Amino acid sequence: MISTIDKLGRIVIPKAIRDEAGWQPGSPLELRYRYGVLEISSVGAEETDSKFEKRGTVWVALPAVEAPPLDAKMVDSMIEGIQESGVRDLTNGPR
């Protein structure tokens, strides 16, 4: 998708992307610029006030912000995006 920057430096993130990412007005986002690519990601639990809960002998980090549950369509979309990007796996990087 293509977007433009307005006079104040703002970029509109298309609704389809905001919906898929679960971003609402006021959602904290992290922006990084590397090698000509602007990366936008949700601020993770490690960057917000996390809560931890002990389950048996294991401590589990709970999200600070409620995230929508994954459904089959979302998982299929993520897998397709990874395959199209040429990533073999998370440790070896691009092909």
Kindly summarize this structure in a few lines.
This protein is an alpha+beta fold.
Task: Explain what this protein looks like in three dimensions.
With 95 residues, the chain is an alpha+beta fold. It has one domain. It contains two helices and six strands; from the N terminus they run αββββαββ. It has a two-stranded antiparallel ribbon. Strands 3-4 form a two-stranded antiparallel ribbon. A two-stranded antiparallel ribbon has the order 5-6. The longest helix is centred in the C-terminal third of the chain and has 14 residues, at 72-85. The two termini are 24 Å apart.
Please give the number of β-strands.
6
Structural class: alpha+beta
Mean pLDDT: 80
**Terminal Cα separation, in Å?**
24 Å
| Tally of domains | 1
Radius of gyration: 17 Å
Helix proportion: 10-25%
- The neighbouring-strand order within the major sheet is 1-2
**Order of H and E elements:** HEEEEHEE
Low-confidence stretches: none
The total count of helices amounts to 2
Query: What is the overall shape?
Result: extended
Describe the largest sheet.
2 strands, antiparallel
What is the percentage of strand-forming residues? 25-35%
